[in-house]
Design brief:
Strand order of the largest sheet: 1-2
Largest sheet: 2 strands, antiparallel
Radius of gyration: 16 Å
Oligomer: single chain
Number of strands: 2
Shape: flat
Length: about 80
């Protein structure tokens, strides 16, 4: 599949991402990252973009970990039947 350039805005910075993913999906994901970083900037009073990026990455990783645990439990329950 051909890669397409998608412009996204995160913390008032424009990034050009070359990806084969659907542009609408890429924009939605970037919006999620931007919202988390903006929220953390306000809640934690952090202005350093590198620190905000790490906080956002940790938040997203925690969400992914929790979802994976829930998925694994559901899958185990289905297999037990």
């Amino acid at each position: 599949m051909a890669k397409e350039a998608v412009n996204v805005q995160i913390c008032n910075e424009t990034y050009v991402l070359r990806t084969s993913a659907a542009p609408a999906k890429v924009l939605k994901i970037a919006q999620n990252v931007d919202e988390r970083m903006q929220k953390l900037a306000t809640e934690k009073n952090v202005q350093n973009k590198e620190k905000l990026a790490v906080w956002a990455a940790l938040d997203l990783a925690a969400d992914l970990y929790e979802l994976q645990e829930r998925y694994d439990k559901l899958l185990a329950a289905v297999r037990e039947r």
